[in-house]
Amino acid sequence: QVQLVESGGGLVQPGGSLILSCVASGIPFDYYAMSWYRQAPGKGRELVAGITSTGGSANYAESVLGRFTISRDNHKNTVLLQMSKLKPDDTAVYYCRADSEDTGTYWGRGAQVTVSS
C-alpha cells in the first residue's frame, strides 16, 4: 500500500519558518519525482515546488522563489520543504505528491500551515 505522510505543519507568525516533511512508503522512492502543492481556502491546488527523482533539479512557484527550498533524501524516502519568511498568503493545506511516468501519481493527505499573528 502506497502512503505519503506529511508532517511539520502548524501555526507560525509572519516572517517565521517551518519545515514540512513527507515520508513515502510502498513505492520505489528514487524512481519518483516529488513535489509539494498547496490549497488555500476557496482556491485551487497549486504547485509550490518540485524535485526530480535524483534530486538534481528543482523548480519553484514564483511566489515562493527565494523563500522555500525543496530537498530529498532517497535513503530515507523523505522529501522536505523548508519554508522561511512566511507570509499570511502562504496559509494553506500543503500536499506531498509523487509522480512516475510508469505508475502514475500519489498524494498525501496534507498538512495545515497557518501564518498569522
Integer-rounded radius of gyration: 13 Å
Helices and strands, in order, run as: EEEEEEEEEEE
- Tally of individual helices: 0
End-to-end distance: 40 Å
Structural class of the helix and strand makeup? mainly beta
In total, the number of strands is 11
Q: Residue ranges: pLDDT <50 for 5 or more in a row? A: none
Major β-sheet, in short? 7 strands, mixed
Shape: globular
Helix content: under 10%
Query: What average pLDDT do the residues reach?
Result: 97
What percentage of the residues does DSSP assign to strands (E)?
A: over 45%
Produce a short descriptive summary.
This protein is mainly beta and 117 residues long.
Structure keywords:
single chain; mainly beta; seven-stranded mixed β-sheet; 0% helix; 54% strand; globular
Q: What report would you give on this structure?
A:
- By secondary structure, the chain is mostly beta strands.
- Helix content is 0%, strand content 54%.
- The protein contains no helices and 11 strands.
- It has strands at residues 3-7, 10-12, 18-25, 33-39, 45-51, 58-60, 68-73, 78-83, 92-100, 104-107, 111-115.
- The strands form 2 sheets. Strands 2, 4, 5, 6, 9, 10 and 11 form a 7-stranded mixed β-sheet that branches. A 4-stranded antiparallel β-sheet has the order 1-3-8-7, with no helix packed on it.
- A hairpin with a 4-residue loop joins strand 7 and strand 8 (78-83).
List the helices and strands and how they pair.
Layout: E1 3-7, E2 10-12, E3 18-25, E4 33-39, E5 45-51, E6 58-60, E7 68-73, E8 78-83, E9 92-100, E10 104-107, E11 111-115
Parallel strand pairs: 2-11
Antiparallel strand pairs: 1-3, 3-8, 4-5, 4-9, 5-6, 7-8, 9-10, 9-11
